[in-house]
Design a protein that fits this description.
Mean pLDDT: 82
Radius of gyration: 15 Å
Number of domains: 1
Structural class: alpha+beta
Strand content: 15-25%
Order of helices and strands: EEHEEHH
Strand order of the largest sheet: 1-2
Shape: globular
């Protein structure tokens, strides 16, 4: 899925992951490859309500927040609507995956 708003073109991909023992997760290989991640790299987890974003560098968190805010403002979407929409989309994706299991 690709989201475009004026000069911003963002590809959004969904990767199901499982929380393992001691809270560990595995970043999918396709994401590691695209972001040039290697073992030992530090990632930053950003929580917004019940939304979780994982970013490879601390510096990108503020940039990501700024981009999300700009897109929301351009589209006239408040934070509550955004989080509700994300929750709805996650539910739909989960239901679709359960149908394919």
């Amino acid at each position: 899925m690709t989201f475009t708003s004026e000069n911003i073109n963002i590809e959004m991909r969904v990767f199901p992951i499982r929380l393992e023992k001691e809270g560990q997760i595995t970043v999918p290989q396709a994401v590691q490859d695209q972001l040039n991640l290697t073992e030992g790299d530090t990632l930053t987890l950003l929580q917004i309500g019940d939304l979780v974003l994982l970013t490879p560098k601390n510096l990108q968190v503020s940039q990501l927040a700024d981009q999300i805010t700009a897109i929301r403002e351009d589209e006239g979407v408040d934070l509550t609507d955004l989080l509700d929409g994300i929750k709805t989309e996650r539910t739909a994706i989960w239901q679709e995956q359960q149908g394919n299991a």
